User: Which sequence fits this backbone?
């Protein structure tokens, strides 16, 4: 059945690329899948080029449209490359260059860290080319997808993914990060991050006291 699905049209400059992340593609992802019966899919069946890594979460997705599959794939990549993306939170490129890690066990980290951060960020931020199936552009049906959350040069599938990523990177309980964000508001995500940085290593009692200290 899936062999009969039409392939999406692919621009020449993306002819060997994964539609999800732009890495070299060696596999094919079909939607809907045989093991995922979708009764309310709003777009026609399709095949698209995919890398082996993105194929794993794509195949496990229970989404009802290809754009919702994207959210599952990006969530998977965020978790897989959490440490690489954390480099951009904890360092700047200039700070790494001036870190004086040229010798010793951290020398390799200094050489490769920013490169790995850039690679991970580009994969997360990549947005696949327009979906054209049998000459028809179906991107106008994309209204089901949550709006992504952009912060600090990274496009998260949604704000929940951004919260989870920053809470883990800062070694803070996700529930605490959410409480702080509820105080500042989503539009002041940066203020939430700055405040939470002050509480890294704090005890639960110290975090509660810090929350109570915020003006009301």
Assistant:
């Amino acid at each position: 059945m899936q062999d009969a699905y039409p392939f999406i049209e692919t621009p020449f400059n993306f002819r060997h690329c994964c539609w999800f992340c732009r890495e070299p593609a060696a596999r094919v992802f079909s939607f809907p899948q045989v093991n995922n019966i979708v009764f309310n899919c709003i777009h026609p069946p399709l095949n698209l080029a995919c890398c082996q890594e993105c194929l794993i979460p794509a195949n496990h997705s229970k989404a009802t449209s290809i754009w919702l599959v994207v959210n599952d794939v990006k969530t998977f990549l965020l978790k897989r490359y959490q440490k690489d993306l954390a480099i951009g939170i904890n360092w700047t490129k200039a700070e790494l260059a001036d870190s004086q890690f040229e010798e010793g066990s951290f020398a390799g980290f200094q050489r490769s860290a920013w490169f790995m951060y850039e690679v991970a960020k580009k994969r997360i931020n990549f947005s696949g080319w327009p979906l054209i199936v049998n000459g028809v552009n179906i991107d106008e049906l994309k209204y089901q997808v949550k709006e992504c959350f952009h912060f600090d040069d990274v496009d998260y599938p949604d704000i929940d993914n951004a919260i989870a990523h920053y809470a883990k990177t800062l070694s803070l309980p996700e529930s605490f990060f959410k409480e702080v964000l509820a105080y500042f508001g989503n539009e002041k995500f940066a203020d939430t991050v700055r405040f939470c940085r002050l509480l890294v290593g704090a005890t639960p009692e110290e975090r509660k006291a810090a929350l109570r200290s915020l003006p009301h």
Observations:
- The CA atoms of residues 62 and 103 lie 48 Å apart.
- The two ends are 60 Å apart (CA to CA).
- The beta strands are 27-31, 46-50, 132-133, 136-137, 149-151, 154-156.
